[in-house]
Amino acid sequence: MDSQNWKHSLLYLTFLLAILHITHNHFAHKLFFGNETVRIKKNPNLPLRFRSDGTFKILQVADMHYGSGSITRCRDVLASQFQFCSDLNTTRFLKRIIQAENPDFIAFTGDNIFGTSAPDAAESLFKAFGPAMESGLPWAAVLGNHDQESTMDREELMSLISLMDYSVSQINPSYDLSNPSKGGVITKIDGFGNYNLRVYGAPGSMLANSTVLNLFFLDSGDRAVYQGIRTYGWIKESQLDWLRGVSQEFQGQKQDPLYPTSAISTMKPPALAFFHIPIPEIPQLFYKEIIGQFQEAVACSRVNSGVLRTFVSMGDVKAVFIGHDHTNDFCGNLEGIWFCYGGGFGYHGYGKSGWPRRARIILAELQKGKKSWMDVQRIMTWKRLDDEKLSKIDEQILWHGR
């Protein structure tokens, strides 16, 4: 290229950069395609981390079953409860609970929309997750067995969810099953919506740059045919392989070099798991001591893929949060791991007349050291009812560290 052409190219490039700069400032983070305006995603403050008071609070929302909005009727509510009841009651409950509990993070555990009542899946998703996006809080979701029954398949749903404002959801992990340490792209994992979110220590603490809590999200599928019989989906071996790989990465994780490692635990940080369909061992809890109510048969898969066995062998999963069975809201312990239902949240999903819709809260608390907040000391949970006082019930400790 001669010097004259080079100068022209440089001037043209400078002109393009100037136009882009002006466009960027003038249109305030908007892109234009034809007559359509597309907003760029708003991202939350990351990474996820504990507060300076040593706490991290999660709101679990199970089974919103959102339909079309104001025209979608409620199910199983008393006539004396509401003059008129629709999806807007679900929206109102979500706004109330966010304001009352002020969580650090929101976890939606599937059946976010009720596909058969949602003529436009994307529109229903935006309405369902609207209060979460308006709050500016980081949030994440997995799919249930009803989400894909509208106009989008499961991959499309998770793709859209991952692009929504303040969502930290992922379609699938970017780990290579054969060698996770290389960070390769995973290609054969089942489902859509398998990912891990790290929660870091309190700001200014010894563990401010370390993961002190992991949040595992798994796609438990929708429906399937097994040995000629229709059944619910299940978590597959490829997902469990990935999960084991992620867990092993945290064994003896590197600590902040500014502090002596002898003062900090080198054990894997505790983890919480979130998915929709309960595992086949959950019915055993009918005969064990539970906290909450066991009011309906467990609708799980006929296939036992070894999820409980995997969690036990990993050693870091302390509690699991599920949905699917709306009138079950109990926590029960299986082999040292607590399994907790969220309880039905949405008004278009089935429920029980006179039994308020509810949400689950999870609170993790750090241990206080001599000079700094340390690792997680305790994990608690309780539920809030959508009644006049947002009644708080069934508070319990799920796990206590050393």
From TrEMBL:
Signal sequence, start to end: 1-25
Entry keyword Nucleotide-binding: no
Domain Calcineurin-like phosphoesterase, chain residue ranges per copy: 56-327
Entry keywords, A to Z: Glycoprotein, Iron, Metal-binding, Secreted, Signal, Zinc
Molecular function in Gene Ontology: hydrolase activity, acting on ester bonds; metal ion binding
Xref: SUPFAM superfamilies: Metallo-dependent phosphatases
InterPro entries, sorted: Calcineurin-like_PHP, Metallo-depent_PP-like, PAP14/16/28/29
Cofactors, names only: Zn(2+)
Gene Ontology cellular-component terms listed: cytoplasm; extracellular region
Cellular compartments annotated: Secreted
CDD domains, per database record: MPP_Dcr2
Top-level lineage group: Eukaryota
Main location: secreted
Family: Belongs to the metallophosphoesterase superfamily. Purple acid phosphatase family.
PANTHER family: INACTIVE PURPLE ACID PHOSPHATASE 28-RELATED, PHOSPHATASE DCR2-RELATED-RELATED
Quaternary structure and partners: Homodimer.
Protein name: Calcineurin-like phosphoesterase domain-containing protein
Source organism (scientific name): Psophocarpus tetragonolobus (Winged bean)
Lineage: Eukaryota, Viridiplantae, Streptophyta, Embryophyta, Tracheophyta
